[in-house]
Amino acid sequence: MRDLGAKGAESFFTKAGRKMLSVKSKGEPMKIALSTLSSRQETILEALGRNENISISHQGKVVAVLRPPAADTVRERMLRTPAFGMWADRDDMADPNEWRRALRRKRRDRRPEGGIL
Question: Which domain does 80 fall in, by range?
Answer without folding.
Answer: 74-110
